[in-house]
Specification:
Blueprint lengths: L8 E5 L2 H16 L5 H12 L8 E8 L5 E10 L6 E10 L1 H8 L3 H24 L2 E7 L3 H17 L3 E6 L2 E6 L2
Parallel strand pairs: 4-5
Antiparallel strand pairs: 1-2, 2-3, 3-4, 5-7, 6-7
Helix pairs in contact: 1-2, 3-4
């Protein structure tokens, strides 16, 4: 999965073929003990129900190069707060069981894939923002490690941001566009 450093990660919606390939590969990884089968089954069930917008939720994948197997599955919500422009919320990025196993073992390949998957998801959320004419992206920090990462990301983005403001609000990294 992370063997070839020259491959880029792409954030995009699943199609039937990419979801079927992802489902088979993730289930295989869970069966090999790289993830809890019940967790993978629950995630894949949710994703199968959100391949197209279902209510305000949508499953996106993070794919390496031309691969049809996702390195990560993202839970994306398009919300419409009263009287405001839409928000894009990136609730969670779940990584492939192989990558999770590599992270657990502090394998540099897994760390690199995980970091690149998060960067791709943030950049992808920006593109979702433009499609849905949203003014805000919110990225949820589920764990302390994710919060540390999001805090560092907010500081790095704030130094470079021209069109938006980055801030931490509770457990969210919030990116607000002024234009």
């Amino acid at each position: 999965m992370a063997e070839n450093d020259k491959r880029s990660l792409i954030f995009k919606p699943f199609n039937d073929a990419s979801f079927a390939a992802t489902k088979a590969d993730w289930e295989k990884g869970a069966e090999e003990g790289k993830a809890f089968p019940a967790d993978v089954e629950q995630l894949l069930k949710w994703a199968s129900e959100h391949l197209a917008v279902n209510g305000n939720e949508l499953a996106y994948g993070v794919f390496e190069g031309g691969s049809t197997v996702a390195s990560g599955i993202c839970e994306v919500i398009i919300s419409h707060p009263a009287g405001k422009k839409s928000w894009v919320k990136l609730l969670r990025l779940r990584l492939h069981p192989k990558v999770e196993d590599e992270l657990f073992r502090n394998d540099p390949a897994g760390i690199k894939t995980a970091l690149n998957a998060y960067v791709s998801a943030v950049i992808g959320a920006y593109h979702v923002k433009t499609v849905h004419n949203a003014s805000t992206i919110k990225i949820y920090g589920r764990t302390q490690e994710q919060m540390k990462f999001l805090t560092l990301l907010a500081a790095a983005l704030e130094d470079k941001a021209v069109e938006f403001k980055a801030s931490i609000e509770g457990r969210w990294l919030v990116l607000r566009w002024t234009k």
